[in-house]
Design brief:
0% of the residues lie in helices and 46% in strands. The chain has 120 residues and is mainly β. It has no helices and 10 strands. The chain has a 6-stranded mixed β-sheet, with no helix packed on it. A 4-stranded antiparallel β-sheet has the order 1-3-8-7, with no helix packed on it. Strand 5 (46-51) and strand 6 form a beta hairpin.
Amino acid sequence: QVQFVESGGGLVQPGGSLRLSCVASGFSFSTSTMAWYRQAPGKQRELVGIITFGGVSINYADSVKGRFTVSRDNAKKTLYLQMNSLKPEDTALYYCNKDRWPGGSPWGSWGPGTQVTVSS
């Protein structure tokens, strides 16, 4: 059974940083392209960043380029999202999932997500 457990969210002031983690199970993580998505209240879920199985290719939404970094540890079956210079518009529920390059085609079951709130 494919499962994702996201963690690391919280309340942070504008300009602050957070590091999200996603532990995956139930499939071959090391051979899967993985992605982070987010969904803000009243908005559709959107792609944040995507990384291929070997970490060679990485791509980001324009809104987070230069501020967010996606990485992975295949031995730990864990996906990471380092978020710096956070803005109030980054407030959302963040999810990870399997995906197909260049992104926008998630194909696993969604986990519970982790809430990120950026506010002063």
